[in-house]
Design a protein that fits this description.
This protein is of the alpha/beta class. Helix content is about 40%, strand content about 20%. It has one domain: Rossmann fold (3-Layer(aba) Sandwich). The strands form two sheets. It has a five-stranded parallel β-sheet, with helices on both faces. The protein has a two-stranded antiparallel ribbon with strand order 4-5. Helix 1 crosses helix 6. The radius of gyration is 16 Å and the shape is globular. The protein starts with a strand and ends with a helix. About 40% of the residues are buried. Bound molecules: flavin mononucleotide. The site of flavin mononucleotide has 13 residues, from helix 1.
Length: about 190
């Protein structure tokens, strides 16, 4: 079966480098044969997680929508900005809200459980945001996903993309191609049982 992969950037910034990387990843995944859905968290605003809020009003509708979207895919490609060497709050907040989902009606429902996850990052700095991925990886393992080894960090991101969205640098592009290849391979094993 064709692997279904959800691509999402952890930034809502206009002109986001990670949104550009997500777009490049979506094109590459589709070229390699995946069925790709690319979304933006702009369309799923969430309040800052607060357990009082969760106890009073439950899990927000947008977190439930994201949970169902994640569960409808075999894999997720996350493009993660690095904030102070770590995970940005927009992404962490979304991951945390979705991690609180445990049921859909009377059925057990854990959207992150068993999903394959690939990580990418883009930053204008020399390290391309790679230090943040160490933290993102740890969080994603904690919520029950299988994070693949390959990852893609794009440095000098302000000048890293061609006008058509492709990565200019051969090394960065090879990292992206290999990360997509590995994610698809893992998701295909899952689709085929
Ligand atoms: C609070 C904060 C902390 C940041 N820390 C880092 C950092 O540790 N390393 C880095 O490479 N860039 C850092 N940056 C710069 C981001 O990489 C930059 O804002 C980038 O454009 C964010 O990704 P985006 O373009 O996808 O929005 C930081 C930015 C902010 C707002």
């Amino acid at each position: 079966m064709t692997p279904r992969i959800l691509v999402l950037p952890g930034s809502n910034r206009t002109g986001s480098f990670n949104a550009a990387l997500a777009a490049a990843a979506a094109v590459e995944l589709a070229q390699q044969g995946a069925d790709v859905t690319r979304i933006s968290l702009v369309d799923y605003p969430l309040p800052i997680l607060d357990e009082n809020l969760k106890n009073e009003t439950g899990i927000p509708e947008n977190a439930l929508k994201l949970g169902h979207l994640i569960a409808a895919h075999d894999g997720v490609f996350l493009c993660c900005p690095e904030y102070n060497s770590s995970i940005p709050p927009l992404l962490k907040n979304m991951i945390d809200w979705v991690s609180l989902i445990t049921r859909d009606g009377d059925k057990v429902f854990k959207p992150w459980a068993g999903r394959y996850v690939a990580l990418g990052s883009a930053s204008n700095g020399k390290l391309g945001g790679i230090r943040g991925l160490y933290h993102v990886r740890s969080v994603m393992v904690n919520v029950g996903t299988q994070v693949i080894s390959e990852q893609c960090a794009v440095s000098g991101a302000a000048d890293a993309f061609e006008a058509d969205g492709r990565l200019k640098d051969e090394r960065a592009n090879t990292m992206l191609v290999n990360t997509c290849k590995s994610l698809i391979r893992h998701c295909s094993m899952m689709s085929n049982g």
